[in-house]
């Protein structure tokens, strides 16, 4: 049997940020209100496109694995904020990293997108269809934000993360997974004024992001917990076997609730929501990279990950890490310099939302 070993990892973090105190100049809020309810202290705002974020994260991951773009058979991009719908954004990432002839596809499962994409690429490697894949999650969630709505304006940020999967005889990579969707309640988290259901001749205005926080909290905790239990049973693991929890970074309270249900100690949980906010599909990809960088993920670690997103999609995954936790090489490229602050980047959007 073939396995899909993670051999490279990389991230793209936009340099411009917006603090909670800065947000208080836009909506009726303050640092204490945001911090106590979400755990978020700051979020990043991208000055480049989703495709550029995905490209940079992918190049980082390729260098980490010691590979070139021409070695890749598949570029799978998880995003709900694509740069373009037609052609798909993954095709531009494929072009940018030089993955000549590789298959390229976007997948949208919102915040669960990275785990959905990881499952898809792993299955193709296990089936012998491909040998190497880039699985990248990239989002510009601030593009959707209605800066006049406090409940959602404080939550979201931009960023990208990527991993390289390679066919291997070593039993590692994604070894257990459960994905699903609770579509009966999809209305509690959605953007209603976007897509081809709208009249193409009428202006849509600022994004109307519906977000019922209390209902989402309940369903997220339940959905991710049940999925994690299913994955543990698949892998014949107990809770004590889990070395690291890398959850979706949507809300610190949700993370803590999942942690409590799984009975996992604080020093085994990767949390970075305070720095980046909710970057949707990118949260787990970025958190996975940082867990390796910070030494939380060690050789042969047992990793549990879970996510919940619009749809209402949910996913849980058991990942077995390999031996290597250091990059083969470093990517010399960087994101383009940003000449504006986070507040300057969103100024025109804020003005439009407040009219």
TrEMBL record:
Annotated ranges, domain Beta-ketoacyl-[acyl-carrier-protein] synthase III N-terminal: 106-182
Annotated stretches, region: ACP-binding: 249-253
Origin: domain of life: Bacteria
Annotated catalysed reactions: malonyl-[ACP] + acetyl-CoA + H(+) = 3-oxobutanoyl-[ACP] + CO2 + CoA
Swiss-Prot/TrEMBL keywords: Acyltransferase, Cytoplasm, Fatty acid biosynthesis, Fatty acid metabolism, Lipid biosynthesis, Lipid metabolism, Multifunctional enzyme, Transferase
Signal peptide range in chain numbering: none
Protein localization: Cytoplasm
Gene Ontology cellular component list: cytoplasm
A GO term for molecular function: beta-ketoacyl-acyl-carrier-protein synthase III activity
Keyword Cytoplasm: yes
EC number: 2.3.1.180
Top EC class for this record: transferase
Domain Beta-ketoacyl-[acyl-carrier-protein] synthase III C-terminal: 232-321
Assembly mode: Homodimer.
Function: Catalyzes the condensation reaction of fatty acid synthesis by the addition to an acyl acceptor of two carbons from malonyl-ACP. Catalyzes the first condensation reaction which initiates fatty acid synthesis and may therefore play a role in governing the total rate of fatty acid production. Possesses both acetoacetyl-ACP synthase and acetyl transacylase activities. Its substrate specificity determines the biosynthesis of branched-chain and/or straight-chain of fatty acids.
Stored NCBIfam families: fabH (TIGR00747), PRK09352.1 (NF006829)
Family per similarity comment: Belongs to the thiolase-like superfamily. FabH family.
Protein name: Beta-ketoacyl-[acyl-carrier-protein] synthase III
Originating species: Pseudoalteromonas rubra
Lineage: Bacteria, Pseudomonadati, Pseudomonadota, Gammaproteobacteria, Alteromonadales
Gene name of the record: fabH
